[in-house]
Amino acid sequence: MLASPLLHIVLHQPEIAANTGNIGRTCVALGAKLWLVRPLGFRVDDYYLRRAGLDYWEHLAWQAVDDWPALLAELTGARDGRAPQPYFFSKSAQRLYTDVRFAPGDVLVFGSESAGLPPSIMAEAGDYLLRLPLLGPVRSLNLSNAVAIAAYEALRQFQEH
Fold it and tell me: pLDDT tens digits for 6-40?
C-alpha cells in the first residue's frame, strides 16, 4: 500500500469490470490510490477486473467504500491535516481539465460509465467541475481513457515544478 499516494482516483459506482481493471493498472503506473464507491456493477474478485489489471493488481493500492459520505470521511485529513482537493469530471462541465493546477495528493473523481456523476455531487463541485474536450459526434470517452488523460496531465504538471 502507498503511504502517501501521488493522486487519488475515485470511481463513483463503476459498472464495467474491465474499465476498472484498466484504471487500476494506470493507478499502479502513477503511484495513485484507486477508490471505488459502491454500489459496483461487478464483484471485486471478478475475472474481467483482474484480467484487465493483469499481474499489476497485487501492487494496486485500492479501497472500496459504501457511499459518497464514507469516501469523504476517509479522505479527510489524508494530507497534512486537511482533505485533498477533489476535481470532478463531467462532459457537461464548462471548465477544461487543462485550466487547473493539480497538486500531489489531489482527488480525480469520475462517474459511472452509463450515468456519469450524480447531480447531487456535480452541484457541490463548483469551479472544480472539469471536462475533457470532445470534438465531432462522440458523446463521451471510455472511462479508462478519460481517467488516463486526466491523471497523466496531473503527472505532467507535477514534473514541471
Answer: 999 999 999 998 899 899 999 999 999 999 999 99
pTM reported for the whole predicted model: 0.92
Q: How far apart are the first and last CA of the chain?
A: 26
As a three-state string, the secondary structure of the chain is: CCCCCCCEEEEECCCCHHHHHHHHHHHHHHCCEEEEECCCCCCCCCHHHHHHHHHHHHHCEEEEECCHHHHHHHHCCCECCECCCEEEECCCCCEEHHHCCCCCCCEEEECECCCECCHHHHHHHHHHEEECCCCCCCCCCCHHHHHHHHHHHHHHHHHHC
